[in-house]
Amino acid sequence: MLNLQNYNTFGLRVYAKNIMHIEDIKQLALLDTKDTIILGKGSDVLFTEDYEGTILVNQIKTLSIEEKNDHFEVKVGGGYILDDFIDLLVSKNIYGLENLSAIPGTVGAAPIQNVGAYGVEIGDFISSIDVYDLETKLIFTLNKKDCKFSYRNSIFKEQKDRRYFITHITFHLNKEFKPKLTYSGLPKDINNAKDLRDFIINIRALKLPDPKFVGNAGSFFKNPFVPLDKIEKIQEEFKDLPIYKQDNGTYKVSAGFLIDKAGCRGITHGKAGTWANQALVIVNRGDAKPFDIVSIAKYVCICVKNKFDIDLYPEVRIYGRSGEILWENL
Protein backbone atom coordinates (compact mmCIF):
# COMPACT_ATOMS: atom_id res chain seq x y z
CA MET A 1 0.00 0.00 0.00
CA LEU A 2 1.25 3.49 -0.91
CA ASN A 3 0.89 6.60 1.24
CA LEU A 4 -1.61 9.20 -0.05
CA GLN A 5 -0.65 11.94 2.41
CA ASN A 6 0.86 14.05 -0.39
CA TYR A 7 -2.11 13.37 -2.67
CA ASN A 8 -4.84 14.90 -0.50
CA THR A 9 -4.69 18.48 0.77
CA PHE A 10 -6.22 17.44 4.10
CA GLY A 11 -2.83 15.77 4.63
CA LEU A 12 -4.47 12.60 5.95
CA ARG A 13 -2.28 9.52 6.30
CA VAL A 14 -4.30 7.10 4.19
CA TYR A 15 -3.11 4.53 1.68
CA ALA A 16 -3.92 3.09 -1.76
CA LYS A 17 -2.97 -0.15 -3.43
CA ASN A 18 -1.27 1.68 -6.30
CA ILE A 19 -0.56 5.19 -7.66
CA MET A 20 0.02 5.94 -11.35
CA HIS A 21 1.03 9.33 -12.81
CA ILE A 22 -0.63 9.91 -16.19
CA GLU A 23 1.40 12.25 -18.42
CA ASP A 24 0.09 11.04 -21.76
CA ILE A 25 -3.27 9.66 -22.83
CA LYS A 26 -1.52 6.63 -24.35
CA GLN A 27 -0.79 5.38 -20.83
CA LEU A 28 -4.50 5.03 -20.13
CA ALA A 29 -5.07 2.70 -23.05
CA LEU A 30 -2.59 0.23 -21.56
CA LEU A 31 -4.16 0.18 -18.10
CA ASP A 32 -6.63 -2.07 -16.42
CA THR A 33 -8.76 0.82 -15.21
CA LYS A 34 -11.04 -1.19 -12.96
CA ASP A 35 -11.13 0.11 -9.35
CA THR A 36 -9.55 3.50 -10.04
CA ILE A 37 -9.90 7.02 -8.67
CA ILE A 38 -8.78 10.05 -10.69
CA LEU A 39 -6.97 12.82 -8.81
CA GLY A 40 -5.27 16.08 -9.68
CA LYS A 41 -3.85 17.59 -6.49
CA GLY A 42 -6.46 16.01 -4.19
CA SER A 43 -7.74 19.44 -3.14
CA ASP A 44 -11.43 18.50 -3.21
CA VAL A 45 -11.42 15.00 -1.71
CA LEU A 46 -11.75 13.34 1.66
CA PHE A 47 -10.55 9.78 2.11
CA THR A 48 -12.36 8.12 4.99
CA GLU A 49 -10.13 5.01 4.94
CA ASP A 50 -7.49 3.26 2.83
CA TYR A 51 -8.45 2.74 -0.81
CA GLU A 52 -8.08 -0.77 -2.23
CA GLY A 53 -7.66 0.31 -5.86
CA THR A 54 -5.39 2.47 -8.01
CA ILE A 55 -5.06 6.26 -7.91
CA LEU A 56 -4.63 7.85 -11.35
CA VAL A 57 -2.89 11.22 -10.96
CA ASN A 58 -3.56 13.55 -13.88
CA GLN A 59 -0.29 15.18 -14.95
CA ILE A 60 -1.09 16.05 -18.57
CA LYS A 61 0.26 19.61 -18.86
CA THR A 62 0.13 20.56 -22.53
CA LEU A 63 -0.89 24.11 -23.49
CA SER A 64 -1.85 25.85 -26.73
CA ILE A 65 -3.15 29.38 -27.31
CA GLU A 66 -4.90 30.41 -30.52
CA GLU A 67 -5.88 34.00 -31.16
CA LYS A 68 -9.25 34.49 -32.86
CA ASN A 69 -10.89 37.69 -34.14
CA ASP A 70 -12.57 38.61 -30.87
CA HIS A 71 -11.26 36.09 -28.31
CA PHE A 72 -8.58 33.57 -27.42
CA GLU A 73 -9.07 29.83 -27.61
CA VAL A 74 -6.86 28.19 -25.01
CA LYS A 75 -6.49 24.42 -24.74
CA VAL A 76 -4.79 23.13 -21.61
CA GLY A 77 -3.96 19.72 -20.18
CA GLY A 78 -5.96 18.56 -17.18
CA GLY A 79 -2.86 18.21 -15.00
CA TYR A 80 -1.89 21.89 -15.25
CA ILE A 81 -2.12 23.66 -11.87
CA LEU A 82 -5.14 25.98 -12.02
CA ASP A 83 -3.54 29.00 -10.36
CA ASP A 84 -0.38 28.68 -12.47
CA PHE A 85 -2.63 28.62 -15.54
CA ILE A 86 -4.49 31.78 -14.47
CA ASP A 87 -1.20 33.53 -13.68
CA LEU A 88 0.07 32.70 -17.18
CA LEU A 89 -3.13 33.96 -18.80
CA VAL A 90 -2.97 37.28 -16.96
CA SER A 91 0.68 37.72 -18.00
CA LYS A 92 -0.39 37.26 -21.65
CA ASN A 93 -3.38 39.63 -21.37
CA ILE A 94 -5.93 36.85 -21.69
CA TYR A 95 -8.91 37.53 -19.46
CA GLY A 96 -11.85 35.94 -17.68
CA LEU A 97 -10.55 33.64 -14.94
CA GLU A 98 -9.02 36.25 -12.59
CA ASN A 99 -11.74 35.79 -9.93
CA LEU A 100 -10.70 32.14 -9.58
CA SER A 101 -7.14 33.03 -8.57
CA ALA A 102 -5.54 31.04 -5.74
CA ILE A 103 -8.08 28.22 -5.87
CA PRO A 104 -6.00 25.08 -5.25
CA GLY A 105 -6.01 22.08 -7.54
CA THR A 106 -5.65 21.34 -11.23
CA VAL A 107 -7.45 22.60 -14.31
CA GLY A 108 -8.80 19.10 -14.93
CA ALA A 109 -10.39 18.85 -11.50
CA ALA A 110 -12.05 22.28 -11.68
CA PRO A 111 -14.92 21.41 -14.09
CA ILE A 112 -16.02 18.44 -12.00
CA GLN A 113 -17.45 20.69 -9.31
CA ASN A 114 -17.69 23.70 -11.62
CA VAL A 115 -15.52 25.56 -9.13
CA GLY A 116 -16.38 29.17 -8.52
CA ALA A 117 -15.42 32.21 -6.50
CA TYR A 118 -16.34 35.88 -6.31
CA GLY A 119 -19.19 35.65 -8.79
CA VAL A 120 -17.43 33.56 -11.47
CA GLU A 121 -17.68 29.83 -12.23
CA ILE A 122 -15.14 28.06 -14.40
CA GLY A 123 -17.90 26.63 -16.59
CA ASP A 124 -18.68 30.19 -17.73
CA PHE A 125 -15.56 30.12 -19.91
CA ILE A 126 -15.28 26.47 -20.97
CA SER A 127 -16.21 25.71 -24.58
CA SER A 128 -15.36 21.98 -24.61
CA ILE A 129 -13.65 19.19 -22.67
CA ASP A 130 -11.76 16.21 -24.07
CA VAL A 131 -12.21 13.00 -22.09
CA TYR A 132 -11.02 9.41 -22.08
CA ASP A 133 -13.71 6.95 -21.06
CA LEU A 134 -12.03 4.47 -18.73
CA GLU A 135 -14.79 1.93 -19.31
CA THR A 136 -15.11 1.96 -23.11
CA LYS A 137 -11.53 3.19 -23.79
CA LEU A 138 -12.93 5.78 -26.22
CA ILE A 139 -11.70 9.37 -26.60
CA PHE A 140 -14.29 12.05 -27.32
CA THR A 141 -15.19 15.70 -26.76
CA LEU A 142 -18.01 17.13 -24.68
CA ASN A 143 -19.25 20.61 -25.55
CA LYS A 144 -20.31 23.08 -22.88
CA LYS A 145 -23.94 21.99 -23.00
CA ASP A 146 -22.95 18.34 -22.65
CA CYS A 147 -21.07 19.16 -19.44
CA LYS A 148 -24.32 20.22 -17.69
CA PHE A 149 -22.64 22.85 -15.53
CA SER A 150 -24.62 24.07 -12.53
CA TYR A 151 -23.78 25.24 -9.02
CA ARG A 152 -20.87 23.03 -7.86
CA ASN A 153 -21.98 20.31 -10.22
CA SER A 154 -21.48 18.88 -13.71
CA ILE A 155 -21.91 15.67 -15.66
CA PHE A 156 -18.55 14.55 -14.25
CA LYS A 157 -19.82 14.72 -10.69
CA GLU A 158 -23.17 13.16 -11.52
CA GLN A 159 -21.54 10.03 -12.88
CA LYS A 160 -21.55 7.45 -10.13
CA ASP A 161 -18.74 5.45 -11.72
CA ARG A 162 -16.58 8.54 -12.43
CA ARG A 163 -15.25 6.94 -15.59
CA TYR A 164 -14.36 10.12 -17.51
CA PHE A 165 -10.69 11.08 -17.32
CA ILE A 166 -10.43 14.75 -18.34
CA THR A 167 -7.43 15.07 -20.65
CA HIS A 168 -7.81 18.62 -22.00
CA ILE A 169 -10.06 21.64 -21.50
CA THR A 170 -10.67 24.32 -24.12
CA PHE A 171 -11.48 27.81 -22.88
CA HIS A 172 -13.09 30.74 -24.72
CA LEU A 173 -11.39 33.74 -23.11
CA ASN A 174 -11.52 37.49 -23.58
CA LYS A 175 -9.11 39.82 -25.34
CA GLU A 176 -10.58 42.76 -23.46
CA PHE A 177 -10.49 43.00 -19.65
CA LYS A 178 -14.12 42.95 -18.49
CA PRO A 179 -13.97 42.44 -14.72
CA LYS A 180 -16.88 40.96 -12.83
CA LEU A 181 -16.94 42.97 -9.62
CA THR A 182 -20.52 42.47 -8.45
CA TYR A 183 -19.57 40.13 -5.61
CA SER A 184 -19.62 41.73 -2.16
CA GLY A 185 -16.17 42.82 -1.01
CA LEU A 186 -14.65 43.39 -4.44
CA PRO A 187 -13.63 47.01 -5.16
CA LYS A 188 -15.46 48.60 -8.09
CA ASP A 189 -12.52 50.66 -9.36
CA ILE A 190 -10.13 47.89 -10.44
CA ASN A 191 -9.13 48.43 -14.07
CA ASN A 192 -6.53 45.75 -14.80
CA ALA A 193 -6.38 41.98 -14.40
CA LYS A 194 -3.20 41.82 -12.34
CA ASP A 195 -4.63 44.15 -9.69
CA LEU A 196 -7.83 42.06 -9.52
CA ARG A 197 -5.85 38.82 -9.28
CA ASP A 198 -3.59 40.26 -6.54
CA PHE A 199 -6.60 41.56 -4.60
CA ILE A 200 -8.33 38.17 -4.67
CA ILE A 201 -5.14 36.33 -3.71
CA ASN A 202 -4.78 38.63 -0.69
CA ILE A 203 -8.43 38.17 0.34
CA ARG A 204 -8.11 34.40 0.18
CA ALA A 205 -4.86 34.48 2.15
CA LEU A 206 -6.58 36.43 4.94
CA LYS A 207 -9.66 34.19 5.08
CA LEU A 208 -8.43 30.74 4.13
CA PRO A 209 -5.62 28.51 5.41
CA ASP A 210 -2.84 27.51 3.04
CA PRO A 211 -3.00 23.70 2.64
CA LYS A 212 0.81 23.66 2.52
CA PHE A 213 0.75 24.49 6.23
CA VAL A 214 -2.76 23.60 7.46
CA GLY A 215 -4.48 20.57 5.96
CA ASN A 216 -7.84 21.45 4.39
CA ALA A 217 -9.89 21.07 1.22
CA GLY A 218 -11.12 24.66 1.00
CA SER A 219 -14.85 25.16 1.40
CA PHE A 220 -16.14 21.91 2.83
CA PHE A 221 -19.86 22.63 2.39
CA LYS A 222 -21.96 23.96 -0.47
CA ASN A 223 -24.02 27.09 0.01
CA PRO A 224 -27.63 25.86 0.44
CA PHE A 225 -30.63 27.05 -1.58
CA VAL A 226 -33.49 28.12 0.68
CA PRO A 227 -37.13 29.19 0.05
CA LEU A 228 -38.26 32.73 0.87
CA ASP A 229 -40.34 31.81 3.93
CA LYS A 230 -37.31 30.29 5.61
CA ILE A 231 -35.17 33.28 4.64
CA GLU A 232 -37.66 35.65 6.28
CA LYS A 233 -37.66 33.60 9.46
CA ILE A 234 -33.85 33.67 9.70
CA GLN A 235 -33.80 37.42 8.99
CA GLU A 236 -35.95 38.05 12.05
CA GLU A 237 -32.80 37.32 14.05
CA PHE A 238 -30.05 37.98 11.49
CA LYS A 239 -30.88 40.91 9.22
CA ASP A 240 -27.37 40.79 7.71
CA LEU A 241 -27.85 37.26 6.33
CA PRO A 242 -25.98 37.11 2.97
CA ILE A 243 -28.43 35.92 0.31
CA TYR A 244 -28.42 35.72 -3.48
CA LYS A 245 -31.76 35.40 -5.27
CA GLN A 246 -31.98 32.64 -7.89
CA ASP A 247 -34.03 32.50 -11.07
CA ASN A 248 -36.28 29.80 -9.58
CA GLY A 249 -37.30 32.01 -6.66
CA THR A 250 -35.07 30.37 -4.03
CA TYR A 251 -32.14 32.09 -2.35
CA LYS A 252 -28.54 30.93 -2.15
CA VAL A 253 -27.42 31.44 1.45
CA SER A 254 -23.88 31.70 2.81
CA ALA A 255 -23.11 28.38 4.50
CA GLY A 256 -20.20 30.04 6.27
CA PHE A 257 -22.57 32.57 7.85
CA LEU A 258 -24.93 29.82 9.03
CA ILE A 259 -22.07 27.79 10.51
CA ASP A 260 -20.71 30.87 12.28
CA LYS A 261 -24.09 31.84 13.77
CA ALA A 262 -24.68 28.24 14.84
CA GLY A 263 -21.61 28.63 17.07
CA CYS A 264 -19.23 26.47 15.05
CA ARG A 265 -16.56 28.91 13.87
CA GLY A 266 -13.09 28.09 15.20
CA ILE A 267 -14.16 25.03 17.16
CA THR A 268 -12.08 21.87 17.61
CA HIS A 269 -13.09 18.23 17.85
CA GLY A 270 -10.32 15.72 18.29
CA LYS A 271 -7.56 16.83 15.92
CA ALA A 272 -9.86 18.58 13.45
CA GLY A 273 -11.81 21.81 13.57
CA THR A 274 -13.28 24.75 11.67
CA TRP A 275 -11.10 27.67 10.63
CA ALA A 276 -11.35 30.77 12.82
CA ASN A 277 -11.36 33.16 9.84
CA GLN A 278 -13.80 31.16 7.70
CA ALA A 279 -16.19 28.71 9.32
CA LEU A 280 -16.85 27.01 5.98
CA VAL A 281 -13.38 25.44 6.05
CA ILE A 282 -12.65 22.28 8.03
CA VAL A 283 -8.99 21.85 8.93
CA ASN A 284 -6.59 19.16 10.05
CA ARG A 285 -5.09 20.62 13.23
CA GLY A 286 -2.26 18.10 13.13
CA ASP A 287 -2.20 14.35 12.49
CA ALA A 288 -5.99 14.15 12.25
CA LYS A 289 -7.59 10.89 11.25
CA PRO A 290 -10.40 10.66 8.68
CA PHE A 291 -12.81 10.02 11.57
CA ASP A 292 -11.91 13.41 13.05
CA ILE A 293 -12.79 15.24 9.82
CA VAL A 294 -16.07 13.36 9.36
CA SER A 295 -17.03 13.87 13.02
CA ILE A 296 -16.52 17.64 13.00
CA ALA A 297 -18.38 17.94 9.67
CA LYS A 298 -21.34 15.94 10.97
CA TYR A 299 -21.38 18.01 14.15
CA VAL A 300 -21.50 21.24 12.12
CA CYS A 301 -24.41 19.86 10.09
CA ILE A 302 -26.35 19.01 13.26
CA CYS A 303 -25.76 22.48 14.75
CA VAL A 304 -26.91 24.27 11.58
CA LYS A 305 -29.94 22.01 11.28
CA ASN A 306 -30.91 22.62 14.89
CA LYS A 307 -30.43 26.38 14.60
CA PHE A 308 -31.89 27.10 11.15
CA ASP A 309 -33.63 23.90 9.97
CA ILE A 310 -31.31 23.86 6.94
CA ASP A 311 -29.39 20.82 5.72
CA LEU A 312 -25.78 21.25 4.64
CA TYR A 313 -24.08 18.99 2.12
CA PRO A 314 -20.37 18.69 1.37
CA GLU A 315 -18.67 20.22 -1.62
CA VAL A 316 -15.77 17.77 -1.29
CA ARG A 317 -15.92 14.30 -2.84
CA ILE A 318 -15.72 11.49 -0.32
CA TYR A 319 -13.99 8.14 -0.90
CA GLY A 320 -13.83 4.95 1.13
CA ARG A 321 -12.31 1.52 0.73
CA SER A 322 -14.11 0.66 -2.52
CA GLY A 323 -14.78 4.06 -4.05
CA GLU A 324 -17.03 7.07 -3.65
CA ILE A 325 -19.38 7.27 -0.66
CA LEU A 326 -22.58 9.27 -0.27
CA TRP A 327 -22.53 11.77 2.59
CA GLU A 328 -25.75 10.40 4.04
CA ASN A 329 -24.23 6.92 4.23
CA LEU A 330 -21.34 7.97 6.48
Overall description:
The chain is α+β, with helices and mostly antiparallel strands. The chain is 23% helix and 28% strand. The chain contains 9 helices and 20 strands. The strands form 6 sheets. It has a 5-stranded antiparallel β-sheet. Strands 1-2-5-3 form a 4-stranded mixed β-sheet. The longest helix has 19 residues. The model has no long low-confidence stretch (mean pLDDT 95).
Overall, the morphology is globular
With strands numbered from the N-terminus, the spatial order across the biggest sheet is 6-7-12-10-11
> Number of helical segments?
9
Percentage beta strand: 25-35%
**What percent of residues adopt helix (DSSP H or I)?**
10-25%
Count of extended strands: 20
Descriptive terms for the model:
single chain, 9 helices, 20 strands, 330 residues, alpha+beta
Quick description:
With 330 residues, the protein is α+β, with helices and mostly antiparallel strands. The protein has nine helices and 20 strands.
Outline the secondary-structure elements.
Elements: E1 2-3, E2 15-22, H1 25-29, E3 36-39, E4 45-47, E5 51-58, E6 63-67, E7 71-77, H2 82-91, H3 110-113, E8 116-117, E9 120-121, E10 126-133, E11 139-143, H4 144-147, H5 155-158, E12 164-174, H6 193-207, E13 215-219, E14 225-226, H7 228-235, E15 243-245, E16 251-253, H8 255-261, E17 268-269, E18 272-275, E19 278-284, H9 290-308, E20 317-319
Parallel strand pairs: 2-5, 3-5, 4-20
Antiparallel strand pairs: 1-2, 6-7, 7-12, 8-9, 10-11, 10-12, 13-19, 14-16, 15-16, 17-18, 18-19
